[in-house]
Design a protein that fits this description.
This protein starts with a helix and ends in an 11-residue tail after the last helix. It has 2 domains: 294 residues, 3-Layer(aba) Sandwich (UDP-N-acetylmuramoyl-L-alanine:D-glutamate ligase); 135 residues, Protein-Tyrosine Phosphatase, Chain A (Alpha-Beta Complex). It is α/β, with parallel strands linked by helices.
């Protein structure tokens, strides 16, 4: 995968650092490239948590119905090629190399963009749109990077459905200091006279969503108000439930291979979304949806690497995600596993990891603090431990390691169950080294 590391570095070198407001740069770049974002219909997915899993579920449903799909997600866990898929598969190195170099040439040859280049994410988004145009897809499922209104993905030209997953406080420095301000940024992707669906759960946010739908003359649906989940059950093998929707629509015994009660919500959102765009699906079939949901996988999100004893990899990196993780652990783990739990944890410096630690502390685990080698954004293991001490974590139950693999091995030695969490970058670090973990394969 050396070529993908080289391409990632090429994009970094020719992109502006950090995040800056405004879409002028990527809009200009897309115009130079022939506006590939206007060449295919798309489903646009924004929100705080659950975007990636929901994207995966929806793409699977479309593909199983016979559409040639494009999927764009971020970030990647191991290498760049994960971010763009066509018909469920990563594109070959040659396609990536050709498109990325074409995009970089376009930036370098334009005086304005050369002097004021797009960000890494904007450049990559332009490349993704161009790849999907070249692959002649029928429909794209596109996950926003951050926010919505000013996100590069919001330049999609033919959005048939805007999907908003649960919203929580995250990226406050860019999106706003209140959940209402953050929700406004995400709801602003709703297209005029389009369709939109929001997970719901907060009356004020639901009211804002419906208000913006009315302003845009859009058809708005609130998942919690129109679809009902019945008999939900989860185990380390997956989940199953019944979903009832409008007009006596009933999906009996839906099964997911991904586990966690939050995956029930994500898959329900995907099913509801597919029902809203059924006119775009050839020979719409409930049986096909059942099959698509069961076969969907999404690495690094409550991924059970080993069942006995349990080893779980989860990318939870904000308080809302950590609440979902802890809730799922409390429901699925045996008493003995909860009572002797080891958590391998790190976080990026700009994340609210103090609150995440407070949530984790409810499980009373041994905390194995670590840092990701070579990642300058990562908090130092000693700083994480210091925050744990601040909130009263017993000193003997907080251990410090420079090497994540060493932390994992020690956690495995002394714990009846191990959870790796706190950052998608940490999840990616372990996915890249999965063969070194010596896991039991059932």
């Amino acid at each position: 995968m050396q070529i993908f590391s080289s391409l990632e570095q090429l994009i970094q070198v020719n992109s502006s650092p950090g995040i800056r407001p405004g879409l002028d740069r990527i809009r200009r770049l897309l115009d130079i490239l022939g506006n590939p974002q206007d060449s295919f219909p798309s489903i646009h997915i924004v929100g705080t948590n659950g975007k990636g899993s929901t994207t995966a579920f929806i793409e699977s449903i479309l593909r199983k119905h016979g559409l040639r799909t494009g999927r764009y997600t971020s970030p990647h866990l191991v290498h760049l090629s994960e971010r763009v898929q066509v018909n469920g598969s990563n594109l070959p190195q040659e396609s990536w190399e050709r498109i990325v170099k074409k995009v970089i040439r376009s930036i370098r040859s334009d005086t304005r963009l050369h002097n004021d280049p797009p960000s890494f994410f904007e450049t990559l988004t332009a490349a993704a749109f161009l790849m999907m145009k070249d692959e002649d897809i029928d429909m794209a499922v596109v996950e926003a990077g951050m926010g919505g209104r000013l996100d590069a993905t919001n330049l999609l030209g033919k959005v048939i459905l805007s999907v908003i997953t649960p919203i929580a406080l995250d990226h406050a420095e860019f999106l706003g200091n209140s959940i209402q301000e953050i929700a406004f940024e995400k709801f602003s992707v709703i297209r005029k006279r389009g369709k939109a669906i929001f997970s719901g759960g907060d009356y004020k946010l639901e009211s804002l969503f419906l208000q913006l739908c009315e302003t845009n003359h859009a058809h708005g649906t609130i998942l919690d108000k129109t679809w009902i989940v019945e008999n939900p059950e989860c185990s380390l093998e997956g989940c199953h439930y019944t979903l009832k929707g409008p007009e006596k629509t009933i999906y009996e015994d839906i099964q997911t291979s991904m586990t966690g009660f939050f995956q029930i919500c994500n898959s329900a959102m995907a099913i509801a979304s597919s029902n809203l765009i059924r006119e775009h699906l050839p020979l719409f079939s409930m049986q096909t949806i059942h099959s698509a949901i069961k076969e969907t996988v999404w690495p690094g999100r409550f991924e059970v690497l080993q069942r006995d004893p349990p080893i779980v990899l989860d990318g939870a990196h904000n308080p809302a995600g950590m609440e979902n993780l802890v809730d799922t652990l409390a429901r699925l783990f045996k008493d003995s596993e909860r009572n002797s739990l080891g958590v391998v944890f790190t976080s990026m410096k700009d994340k609210d990891f103090l609150q995440s630690l407070e949530i984790l502390q409810k499980m009373n685990p041994v905390l194995f603090c670590c840092s990701i080698p070579g990642n300058s954004r990562c908090a130092h293991a000693r700083d994480i431990a210091s925050k744990a001490y601040e909130i009263g974590w017993p000193t003997p139950r907080v251990l410090i390691y420079d090497d994540p693999m060493e932390a994992f091995q020690e956690a495995r030695n002394i714990s009846s169950a191990v959870v790796i969490c706190g950052s998608l970058y940490l999840a990616g670090y372990f996915k890249a080294r999965e063969q070194l973990l010596n896991l039991k394969k059932e």
